[in-house]
Amino acid sequence: MLRKLLELFSRESLLDQAHADIITMLKEDNEMFGEAIRTLRHSDTAELRFDFQEKDRYINKLEREVRKKVITHLSVQQGFNISAALVITAIVHDVERIGDYCKNIAELASLHPKEMALGELEGGFQDIEKAISNRFDKTIKALEEIDVDIANTVLDEHPGITRFCDSVVRALVNEEISDLKPGEYASLALYARYLKRTASHLSNIASSIVNPFHRIGFRPKDKGNGVEELDS
Fold first, then answer.
1. Cα(27)–Cα(37) distance, integer angstroms
2. Phi, psi dihedrals of residue 209, rounded to the nearest 5°
3. Is residue 232 part of a domain?
4. I need a surface site. Which of 17, 25, 106, 224 has the fewest CB within 10 A?
5. In a domain, 229, yes or no
6. What DSSP designation does 155 have?
7. Whole-angstrom Cα distance, residue 58 to residue 62?
8. Which pLDDT tens digit goes with each residue over 185-206?
9. What is the longest distance spanned by two Cα atoms in the chain?
10. Domain count of the chain?
11. 74/49 Cα distance (integer angstroms)
């Protein structure tokens, strides 16, 4: 679906601009994610190197601009494939939501000003943080090049991240983690949730490159394995 859309980009300036705006938004999200992780996990202060609220306002402004460009194009261009416009609006929603979860991680850091240590789960979280950071780079590249192969690698990595985050929450509920301070249990549950949701929205974006519109947010049919939803 998105490859067909790219063919239109070369002829339709408004859609070309919308595509560029989405990529800019995701790059802003990537910066926010990296800084939120640094502040929460590798700093003994809650100080951020840049203003998250300002970046959030910029991302929200670009989201509105993308919607405006899409609706303007649909209003003046007869015979346009409406499915392509729906793909753009689906992607921009996921990109905006990622920014919100990055803000949530930064807000968690402000409530947890000391470096967040995770005890026996430290190694697992380091792996997940690195995996999601790498998925940002892959998703941006997949969007820029409309590369189905790269998008598929993002989707292939999704189940492992989801399983880890779910296992952490389950272990917390069942009181199976013993080397954390009382106040750290709630922080850890929230953090696992924010990471999972960030990863899910990246997967949704990747699915828009691989799948037709009606299957955005689902695994490709040949990879469903009985559980189709990516956002689970």
1. 16
2. -85, -30
3. no
4. 224
5. no
6. H
7. 6
8. 889 999 999 999 999 999 999 9
9. 63
10. 1
11. 40
